[in-house]
């Protein structure tokens, strides 16, 4: 019996403790605590907003002060009216006083409303500025980050910092509310303290408990609901965008994928709804606790004030005034704490945004002389891979192992091997979309890290097997530049050389035709082969020093492929080129062939040398030659 009683007692004590304790959900969940404190983030938010549009901050200050004044006037009006009646003033005086008060209220209200409108309008500009920062970071972050789930979740979470009334906007608005609360607390508090300072103490203590309850619930929501659901939001977005994306429409219908996609989507949402329910329950409990405390507080104050009227000779007009002042003080106090709780939530959102903007990029180590050179200034380009090994970020397996390879200036290198051998990864390292895990890559004897990455990117013209087209006009999909930096005649020439001109010239707007239907309902899409020709046109237009061709003809028919090879031969004259192809006969025009298997180079030499060596290359070549012979036979 005693043991049972002890258990109940322990549970009750725990419940009381939980009732008042603030939680530290992030720490409990092992999530790194936010990097910047409340004040630090507040200064950051105000500074950033001020830079983007200072009217927003000014408006928030004006609104903060005037809202408090407006409330105080409201509290004093009943007192003034009652005092006029108690003092039996003339009707004339009463009208004059009331008109004066009315005018003051009207002026304060009008200025406040105007400031609110100015604030809303200014916020729009701040928002655009934030989105611009967000987009710039998303566009320029290291390529590898775009497939890092932690980073992708952070991108998703950072959005909250830009929404109105959340993150940065929330921070400034809460700041404005707190300013208003402080004005009220100071003025009302001073008036109340004159009659009894104990009242202030009770109000502060109870408001503090309300703050603690709200704070722990809010932190719980941020960590267990909003953060926890960020990958869920991302997956949801994937399904909704896949459903309306024309690219997937064919497969979804032909393979009858609707049902299982919908089921997967429902499963994701089942998890989401379960989290919503838990979150909702948490908030109902929070409201119940806060209402209980508020009720207790009001009862206590009424008892004190009624006692003063009955025993201390307080006038009715003063009673009404103090009821108003006490109510305002306590509301302002709890409001101030609540605003601090919201601010804490905004702090976490802002922290996500700052973490996103400050995300560690593979910055060159300037002290080691890396990333400093913005001028490559070379005429010849010779690359050398020195003991290069590589694994994708977050993966344990090496995709390339100890690669030693020289691509001589002006030479054509063919890279062959079965799927997954590491050929594309080699080109990604060469173009510095990723940095080697071990070893280094040299350009004319100099570590490529020495060069500024954007400058380095500019020496390559890549043609990939899968290319994405942008919802821009055709010419812009070739020049990849704004109109004033584009030579449209040259884009047309490139289009002719890639063999896509016939198709594009059939459209009314020719080279100005919009691709995709995002901005133009009459926009057009391109087939796989046409996209490859477009990629080829891009490379021709850019006319850069080093060509990287990664299975550039995979989607083309035999005739188009033949024509494309003739163009390649023209294009690569005098240039360094790397050519990946699964069709070995097409690699003959190359000076050297390297064969990859499981991330290693297993054979290296000219076509003739490799055939003579009688190894895997020869074997693969013969199998393919037989296949094409058989195909020819079938056609005949
Ligand atoms: P290939 O071009 O020879 O077909 P890849 O270089 O594309 O081969 O791929 C080599 C290996 O690296 C494969 O096992 C592939 O699954 C893996 N891989 C490719 N891209 C990524 C990536 N972004 N993240 C993780 N692994 C990858």
TrEMBL record:
Superkingdom of the organism of origin: Bacteria
SUPFAM superfamilies xref list: ABC transporter transmembrane region, P-loop containing nucleoside triphosphate hydrolases
Organism: Eubacterium ventriosum
Protein name: ABC transporter ATP-binding protein
Primary localisation category: membrane
Transmembrane regions: 56-77, 93-111, 182-211, 292-310, 319-342
Keyword Transport: yes
Its membrane topology: Multi-pass membrane protein
């Amino acid at each position: 019996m005693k043991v049972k009683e002890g258990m109940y007692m322990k549970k009750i004590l725990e419940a009381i403790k939980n009732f008042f304790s603030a939680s530290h959900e992030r720490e409990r969940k092992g999530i790194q605590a936010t990097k910047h404190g409340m004040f630090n983030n507040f200064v950051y938010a105000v500074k950033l907003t001020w830079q983007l549009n200072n009217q927003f901050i000014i408006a928030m200050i004006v609104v903060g002060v005037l809202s408090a004044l407006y409330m105080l006037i409201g509290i004093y009006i009943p007192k003034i009216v009652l005092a006029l009646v108690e003092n039996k003033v003339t009707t004339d005086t009463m009208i004059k006083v009331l008109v004066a008060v009315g005018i003051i209220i009207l002026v304060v209200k009008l200025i406040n409303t105007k400031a609110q409108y100015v604030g809303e309008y200014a916020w729009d500009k701040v928002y655009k500025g934030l989105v611009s920062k967000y987009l710039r970071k998303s566009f320029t972050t290291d390529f590898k980050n775009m497939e890092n789930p932690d980073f992708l979740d952070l991108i998703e979470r950072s959005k909250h910092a830009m929404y109105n009334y959340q993150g940065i906007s929330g921070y400034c608005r809460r700041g404005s509310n707190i300013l208003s609360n402080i004005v009220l607390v100071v003025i009302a508090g001073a008036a109340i303290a004159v009659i009894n300072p104990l009242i202030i103490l009770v109000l502060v203590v109870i408001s503090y408990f309300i703050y603690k309850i709200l704070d722990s619930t809010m932190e719980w929501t941020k960590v267990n609901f909003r953060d926890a659901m960020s990958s869920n939001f991302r997956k949801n977005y994937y399904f909704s965008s896949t459903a309306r994306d024309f690219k997937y429409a064919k497969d979804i219908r032909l393979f009858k994928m609707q049902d299982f996609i919908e089921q997967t989507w429902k499963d994701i949402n089942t998890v989401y709804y379960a989290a919503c329910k838990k979150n909702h329950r948490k908030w109902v409990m929070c409201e119940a606790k806060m209402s209980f405390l508020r009720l207790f507080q009001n009862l206590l104050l009424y008892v004190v004030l009624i006692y003063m009227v009955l025993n201390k000779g307080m006038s009715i007009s003063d009673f009404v005034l103090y009821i108003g002042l006490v109510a305002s003080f306590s509301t302002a106090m709890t409001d101030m704490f609540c605003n601090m709780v919201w601010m804490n939530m905004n702090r976490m959102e802002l922290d996500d945004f700052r973490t996103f903007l400050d995300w560690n990029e593979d910055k060159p180590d300037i002290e080691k002389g890396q990333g400093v050179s913005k001028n490559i200034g070379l005429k010849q380009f010779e690359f050398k891979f020195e003991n290069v090994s590589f694994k994708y970020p977050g993966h344990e397996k090496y995709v390339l192992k100890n690669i030693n390879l020289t691509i001589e200036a002006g030479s054509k290198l063919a890279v062959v091997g079965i799927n997954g051998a590491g050929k594309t990864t080699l080109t990604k390292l060469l173009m510095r979309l990723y940095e080697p895990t071990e070893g280094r890559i040299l350009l004319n004897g100099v570590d490529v890290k020495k060069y500024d990455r954007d400058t380095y990117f500019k020496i390559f013209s890549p043609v990939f097997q899968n290319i994405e087209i942008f919802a821009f006009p055709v010419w812009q999909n070739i020049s990849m530049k704004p109109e004033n930096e584009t030579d449209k005649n040259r884009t047309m020439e490139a289009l002719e050389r890639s063999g896509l001109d016939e198709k594009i010239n059939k459209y009314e707007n020719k080279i100005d035709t919009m691709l995709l239907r995002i901005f133009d309902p009459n926009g057009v899409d391109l087939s796989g082969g046409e996209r490859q020709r477009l990629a080829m046109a891009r490379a021709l237009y850019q006319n850069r020093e080093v060509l990287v061709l990664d299975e550039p003809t995979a989607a083309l028919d035999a005739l188009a492929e033949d024509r494309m090879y003739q163009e390649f031969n023209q294009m690569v004259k005098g240039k360094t080129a790397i050519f990946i192809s699964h069709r070995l006969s097409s690699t003959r025009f190359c000076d050297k062939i390297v064969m990859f298997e499981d991330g290693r180079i297993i054979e290296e030499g000219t076509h003739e040398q490799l055939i003579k060596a009688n190894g895997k290359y020869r074997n693969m070549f013969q199998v393919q030659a037989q296949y094409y012979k058989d195909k020819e036979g079938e056609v005949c």
